């Protein structure tokens, strides 16, 4: 029994430590900074986010997901997801970063008026 545990532990260590192929490392890579999208015009950013969400059949509110590996084995669990699932998870991270930039900059919101006006009244002529 002890021998089996030693072999299992060494296999998990080898599988997880081979150049960033663990599930935890790859899922962490999906989290992106929203600051990279702040220089993109709002209308273009909204269109890019919506197109990416549609391409991967994800909601525009998608967020990166993380698995819950057995306690302590996260860095050693090999990434067994399919390429399609990895691509979808990466797109979720991009969509989340774009959405945070959109929200922070109030993209898509109508411009706030500086002056108060009564409903139905016309703005004063100067």
Structure description:
The radius of gyration is 23 Å and the shape is elongated. It has 126 residues and is mainly alpha-helical. Helix 3 runs antiparallel to helix 4 (83-104). The chain is 46% helix and 0% strand. The protein has four helices and no strands. The N and C termini lie far apart (90 Å).
Topology:
Blueprint: H1 2-16, H2 23-29, H3 42-55, H4 83-104
Please summarize what this structure is:
With 126 residues, the protein is an all-alpha fold. It has four helices and no strands.
Task: List its traits.
mainly alpha, 4 helices, 0% strand
The tally of strands reads: 0
The topology string of helices and strands comes to: HHHH
- Roughly how many Å is the radius of gyration? 23 Å
Count of DSSP H/I helices: 4
Q: How far is it from the N-terminal to the C-terminal residue, by CA?
A: 90 Å
Structure classification: mainly alpha
Main sheet, how many strands, which sense, barrel?
none
Unreliable residue runs: 15-19
Give helix % range: 40-55%
The percentage of residues in β strands lies in: under 5%
Shape: elongated
């Amino acid at each position: 029994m002890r021998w089996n545990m030693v072999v299992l532990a060494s296999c998990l260590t080898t599988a997880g430590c081979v150049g960033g192929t663990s599930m935890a490392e790859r899922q962490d890579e999906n989290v992106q900074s929203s600051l990279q999208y702040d220089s993109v015009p709002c209308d273009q950013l909204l269109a890019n986010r919506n197109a990416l969400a549609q391409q991967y059949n994800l909601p525009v509110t998608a967020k990166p997901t993380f698995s819950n590996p057995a306690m302590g084995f996260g860095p050693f669990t090999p990434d067994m997801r399919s390429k399609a699932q990895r691509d979808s998870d990466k797109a979720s991270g991009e969509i989340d970063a774009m959405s945070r930039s959109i929200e922070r900059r109030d993209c898509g919101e109508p411009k706030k008026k500086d002056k108060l006006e009564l409903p139905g009244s016309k703005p004063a002529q100067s």
